[in-house]
């Protein structure tokens, strides 16, 4: 009888440890997210499932063109691309991104730009025109979706405070035929 009781207690301990470990990993390190909508097309598709790396933003700083997940003002999580870092001046002219006056390539948009026949993919704007600020404020990010014509992003909701960022993401794990690392 004592042996069965001891074996049951060992199973309960193992299950409790597994549940606590899974909760720790999910809450502090990695979490799944489902892409909801078309704002990141063609890079990400509606209903792609991805892993959010929460740990990366606890120890490091975001980099330009990272794909991040953040809490949006509508109590929803958004997935967008980092375009502007704190202190940056952002401008779009002739479908080209300028950061602090320097033109930047956005190779992830090339295919989409070639498909657009009725004007630019990204309408011209300056950071000041869309946010009222000359530079991205300290502790904030300027983000945009890759589907520039149909993305609700920093042009509409303003800059994103760093404390609202959950983490970055770059791995699609579902659907199986679309498993890949995105850039």
UniProtKB/TrEMBL annotation:
Catalytic activity annotation: Cleavage of hydrophobic, N-terminal signal or leader sequences from secreted and periplasmic proteins
Query: What CDD domains does this protein's entry cite?
Result: S26_SPase_I
Alphabetically sorted, this entry's keywords are: Hydrolase, Membrane, Protease, Transmembrane, Transmembrane helix
GO biological process: what's one of them? Answer: signal peptide processing
Location of the protein in the cell: Cell membrane; Membrane
* InterPro entries attached to this UniProt entry: LexA/Signal_pep-like_sf, Pept_S26A_signal_pept_1, Pept_S26A_signal_pept_1_CS, Pept_S26A_signal_pept_1_Lys-AS, Pept_S26A_signal_pept_1_Ser-AS, Peptidase_S26
Q: Which residues form the signal peptide?
A: none
Q: What is its main location?
A: membrane
Q: What is this protein called?
A: Signal peptidase I
Q: Which organism is it from?
A: Robertmurraya siralis
């Amino acid at each position: 009888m004592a042996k069965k009781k001891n074996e049951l207690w060992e199973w309960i301990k193992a299950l409790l440890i597994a549940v606590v470990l899974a909760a720790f990993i999910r809450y502090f390190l990695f979490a799944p997210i489902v892409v909801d909508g078309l704002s990141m097309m063609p890079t990400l598709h509606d209903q792609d499932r991805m892993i959010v790396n929460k740990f990366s933003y606890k120890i490091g700083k975001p980099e330009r063109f990272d794909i991040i997940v953040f809490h949006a003002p509508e109590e929803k999580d958004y997935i967008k691309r980092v375009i502007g870092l704190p202190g940056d001046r952002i401008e779009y002219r002739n479908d080209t991104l300028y950061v602090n006056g320097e033109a930047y390539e956005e190779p992830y948009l090339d295919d989409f730009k070639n498909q657009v026949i009725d004007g630019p993919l990204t309408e011209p704007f300056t950071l000041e025109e869309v946010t009222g600020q000359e530079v991205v404020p300290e502790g904030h990010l300027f983000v945009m979706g890759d589907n520039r014509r149909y993305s609700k992003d920093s042009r509409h909701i303003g800059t994103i405070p760093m404390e609202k960022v959950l983490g970055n993401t770059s791995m699609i794990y579902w659907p199986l035929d679309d498993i890949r690392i995105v850039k």
